Amino acid sequence: MEPFTRYTAIAAPFDQANVDTDQIMPARFMRRxxxxxxxxxxxxxxxxxxxxxxRPDFILNQPPFDAAGILVAGRNxxxxxxxxxxxxxxxxMGHRCVVAPSFGDIFFSNALKNGLLPVRLPESxxxxxxxxxxxxxxxxxxVDLERQELTGPDGTAHxxxxxxxxxxxLLRGLDEIGLTLTLAPDxxxxxxxxxxxx
Amino acid sequence: MGxxxxxxxxxxxxxxxxxxxLALLYVDRHYFHEGSFHAFNMLRARGLPVxxxxxxxxxxxxxxxxxxRRTADVADPEIRGxxxxxxxxxxxxxxxxxxxxxxxQGIVHVAGPEQGLTLPGxxxxxxxxxxxxxxxxxxxxxxxxxxEVAHVLATQTIWQTPPKQIRCAFEGTLPEGSxxxxxxxxxxxxxxxxxxxxxxxxxxxxxxxxLSVEARLTLCNMAIEAGARTGMVAPDATTAAWLAGRPHAPxxxxxxxxxxxxxxxxTFDSAVTLDAATIRPMATWGTSPEEAVPLSGRIxxxxxxxxxxxxxxxxxxxxxxxxxxxxxxxxxxxxxxFLGSCTNARxxxxxxxxxxxxxxxxxxxxxxxxxxxxxxxxxxxxxxDRVFREAGARWEESACALCVSMHGETVGExxxxxxxxxxxxxxxxxxxxxxxLVSPASAAASxxxxxxxxxx
Lengths: 198, 456
Prior knowledge:
The structure holds 2 protein chains of 2 kinds.
Chain A: E1 6-13, H1 21-24, H2 38-41, H3 44-47, E2 70-72, H4 85-92, E3 97-100, H5 105-113, E4 117-120, H6 123-135, E5 140-144, E6 149-151, E7 157-159, H7 164-172, H8 176-181, H9 184-197
Parallel strand pairs in A: 1-2, 2-3, 3-4
Antiparallel strand pairs in A: 1-5, 5-6, 6-7
Chain B: H1 5-12, E1 14-17, E2 23-26, E3 29-32, H2 37-46, E4 56-59, H3 77-92, E5 96-98, H4 108-114, E6 123-126, E7 140-143, H5 146-155, E8 157-160, E9 164-171, H6 180-191, E10 199-204, H7 206-209, H8 213-221, E11 230-232, H9 237-243, E12 270-275, E13 282-284, E14 292-294, H10 308-321, E15 336-339, H11 347-357, E16 366-368, H12 373-381, H13 384-391, E17 394-395, E18 416-419, E19 434-437, H14 440-449
Parallel strand pairs in B: 3-4, 3-6, 4-5, 6-7, 9-10, 9-12, 10-11, 15-16, 15-18, 16-17, 18-19
Antiparallel strand pairs in B: 1-2, 2-8, 13-14
Helix pairs in contact in B: 2-5, 6-8, 11-13, 11-14
Function (chain A): Catalyzes the isomerization between 2-isopropylmalate and 3-isopropylmalate, via the formation of 2-isopropylmaleate.
Keywords (chain A): Amino-acid biosynthesis, Branched-chain amino acid biosynthesis, Leucine biosynthesis, Lyase
Family (chain A): Belongs to the LeuD family. LeuD type 1 subfamily.
């Protein structure tokens, strides 16, 4: 995984609550291997008409938001299905960060493991940020994972929380499986204790 | 200080704990399905073996057709390829997989418990959000993503942050005609799809104790729709009796199961209590499981929503669903009905629907897909297949089927379907499909009426 340290990008206002992962990645595309086509699967049925034309009223089809790297979303972003393909689709579309008042648990975890930074901030803060990027299209936001800060267009830095282990892995671009495999002796000892107790 | 059921199981599985609360938990049971191919690819890319193939079990369900039982008979080459990959991955890693043609095949959250593979006190994971279902047996069970599936395959462990602990009690007696599905929908309507976010729900109270194991499986299945990572019910004599004689269950109940309950002095982060006696047959009207009302009620108008965010959400849902708001639920006309899924396709579910249909004819097309091939045979032994067929329904094979519509069949654009599944998300059953979640008895009654109604 590529390390995630600091990131600045155009932010798009994504004003929908309870965006489920079925919306982000429709089930019928999930049989496909992970490749560049995932960029067209993301939000597919909201982005395209049944005939395949781009819907002009969909926010991520409108310049400059079609070049957004950060989504400022609503509450419960990424609820529902555990499909990690939803994260693959967002990454393929060019997003590296989603800001929301709350996230679906499994989505949050999937995002962290793939270098898509989920930033949880109070709902009033998120609403104000969404408003700001909506009224001044092209506004950028900056996120600093080392400092755990997201900086808004007015220069205010908002602190966010993130699990320590995931933060370390993201900052250093480390592979969680590799780290856990260094604990193989502890895992084997645990198995031995359990087998002895049976 | 006392501990909750959740804490007791958690504590027994900690391999390593970090200062920040994160723990490496040992996984007792790992299930996978055809959709887990990304994880096997990750393993292959690293050249890693599966650490414990003996604790890992595969079930072919997500892409399984309802009309064929041989992989070679799957018409769509892309879907057939996914199923073949699932079978090849299992063979390559010497994992027992319940493939399409296996007499014990079924939906992982129906067939796993049915096989006795999920037991009280276990940690259970699967790359599927409805893994919460298994908590009904007193297990700590939760859904994970593909990267985590790869991690479990390679290490038999998973890193977890302790969730908030939520006690959800249903007290009193559930009225005749109301079911565990209605309890789940009533709960989610009350606390919202974000109500359980970051949490583990323990279902308790007299109405939960009175539920059969199958009904508890339905309730825990829907915990994820309340946003919770998992749902669980303390094991009791009902649990032990249900597990007795299952292929992979011990011959005698494990005495350790008796310690699996929440201590009287244990504390929860939050608690909610519902009066079971007030729960009526429910249905969703929108595109989120929280958008649910009693079938005897009417659909709300967007302007009646309690806050601005929900006013927008409700307006969007009503628009997608082709509804105005204000209509009586019973006036909503259906195009089709689906009885199936890991939520509601166990033998009790099929009996409840068949009891409503017996000797009558349905008004709109209905598909019945049993939760497992065993459930299918049990239903046929009781003659339920004849009841469904004589009523005019399609009686087909076990699969996730129209719950997730990955197997090739979909609900059409603009079509309205009453479904016993768990998600009414936009496009879930097919692009532009409109889904109303209901119980099996309500699904059957709605199929007869061609409208959204309850059986009572």
